[in-house]
Design a protein that fits this description.
This protein has helices spanning 15-21, 37-40, 109-112, 140-150, 152-159, 170-188, 194-203, 208-214, 245-249, 259-266, 286-291, 310-319; strands at 6-10, 23-27, 50-55, 58-65, 70-74, 84-103, 135-138, 233-236, 254-257, 270-272, 278-280. With 330 residues, it is an alpha+beta fold. The chain has 2 domains: 6-170, ph1033 like domains (ph1033 like fold, Roll), CATH 3.10.590; 190-327, no CATH class. A hairpin with a 2-residue loop joins strand 3 (50-55) and strand 4 (58-65).
Length: 330
Amino acid sequence: MRRVRYWWVNQRKTFRHEVDGGYLWSPKRKSDGSVNPFYEFMREVSPGDLVFSYANAAIPAYGIARSFAYEAPKPEAFGAAGRNWDDIGWRVDVSFERLSGGFRPKHWMEVLGPLLPARYSPLRPDGTGMQPVYLTELPRPFALQLADLLDTRVAAFARSEAHAESMDETAADDQVLWEEHLREEIARSSHVSETDKTSLIVARRGQGRFRANVQMYESSCRVTGVSRPEHLRASHCKPWRDATNDERLDGHNGLLLTPSIDHLFDRGFISFDDGGRLLVSPVAHAPSLERMGVPVTGRFDAGSFDPPQRPYLEYHRDLVFLSSRTRHAG
């Protein structure tokens, strides 16, 4: 069990799609490629967190997060003709409940105003919404006061110390669907030989030529030290679904990891800096990681990485690892 965190999502035009569809979705970056802190926060939502929905100057719904963030194409409901396979962002599954009454925060700023966060506030001092905000974390005192004003159900939930973390299986289903689309693109390609098609497709599961290439640079699990090949998986640093065909087979884009460590690395619960320091996500369940053999307290050195491996690890830290870069900014 873990303490609940509180989030404010400014949905505006996406309110109906997200609330009825049961999710949040944001791009990973701004249109110019720069970091947006309000997209970065998606990476730190955990199952059981409380989400306040803000739309049309009111709070018409609240929700309970049912997944961690995961990569997903832009939803069809946002206006694309079918899934937008080329526009990949962060998705979090949420169970929403609509509220009655049309609560407007600007009418309650006498009590809410003093509790607003100094940084990344969702509201201006006059109670109007901050347009650039998509998702931002709320301080506990603000969230509790807001919950009290909204509804007794919300207030009771907000004051609970922790909640059962019921995971939604949608993440796995959506990513399998996306990867299957990519697999079919490879199979249909007239620019890839039949031999290379097979190599690229089996690389999706860390097998074949990709695994052989990884074994040229890695000989054991960086975390557990296990070196028996039958107990190791070849794991992509830059995920197969995000990589070019060359990157999908590049041995520098892989690590040999035991199955439990592979799972944690693949889902972004752990990562590494270039020097080999183990990084643990703030949303990871530390007791579980310890049981899997991950040293979560103190500094753990997994050994430095070669220069050709570092761009792939940087990609993993920037776009897979479940830790917002706003945590380290400013």
